[in-house]
Amino acid sequence: MDWGMKNRLSQLFKKDGHCFFLPIDHGYFQGPTRCLEKPAETIKPLLPYCDALFVTRGVLRACVKPIGSKPIILRVSGGTSMVGNDLANEVLTTAIEDIIRLNASAVGVSVFIGSDYEKQTLSNLADLVNECEDYGIPVMAVTAVGKEIEKREARYLGLCCRIAAELGAKVVKTYWCDKDFDKVVKGCPVPVVMAGGPKCKTEKEVFEFVYSGMQDGAVGINLGRNVWQSPYPVAVAAALQAIIHKKANVKDACKIFDEMKKKI
User: Fold this and answer.
1) Which of 170, 110, 185 is nearest to 136 (CA)?
2) Entry pTM
3) Which of 41, 107, 131, 208 is 20 to 30 A from 230 in CA distance terms?
4) CA torsion angle for 144, 165, 77, 111 (degrees, to 10)?
5) What are φ and ψ of residue 222, in 5° steps?
6) Residues marked as catalytic
7) What would the pLDDT profile of 1-46 be if each residue is shown by its tens digit?
8) Cα(168)–Cα(133) distance, rounded to whole angstroms?
9) CA 14/CA 197 separation, integer angstroms
10) pLDDT (tens digit, 9 = 90+) per residue, 127-140?
11) Is 263 part of a structural domain of the chain?
12) CATH code (residue 181)
């Protein structure tokens, strides 16, 4: 692996090999998502707890301070919206020159395996890897399912993760599932990070699935709505950081969450 690639990956993963990515890219298909209407205000108190931001170039330039920034994973696929016919009909939105110009530590692209646009989105991933390898920029594949949430089971997720890794993704973001998630991770030869998916009903539910996934071999999380849509986002972030980097269990995380709530 080239020095540049190693260097960028080391920015994303801490010495323990784990990571807490904070995605704020939801607006690229959802518009002004609740609690993310003003991204700069949303992320400001959360930055001390996360390791990197997952963001589009527009919000990066408009809302993220370039001095002292967290490492950036740049969202580079899109072209569809919630009101369109199919969320899977994505294209690559950002040229390699802009990726370099923005000094991204990595880039992220969605793949919709099993959809009508499977080949198109896998081609997006392959084309992106081909370009980014020349410049030592890691690619994170996002195993998206659009509106078909029922697809989030181990056999399907394992298929998605393995294909993404085979095409050259250095990291794969996928959903946690409550059965055989360890098989998903073991079948993927590159690090797996967990997506949040729909917002959980309670913070404890979030801590439970994150802890379970870490025990099954995931290296970290890429959680957005389950953090910044909570009434206590900083407390959630602190508790998740403890699970990811301090080997906290669910009971520990709940205690941290409760103690942080009292200070807010």
Assistant:
1) 170
2) 0.96
3) 107
4) -30
5) -135, 75
6) 173
7) 899 999 999 999 999 999 999 999 999 999 999 999 999 999 999 9
8) 9
9) 24
10) 999 999 999 999 99
11) no
12) 3.20.20.70
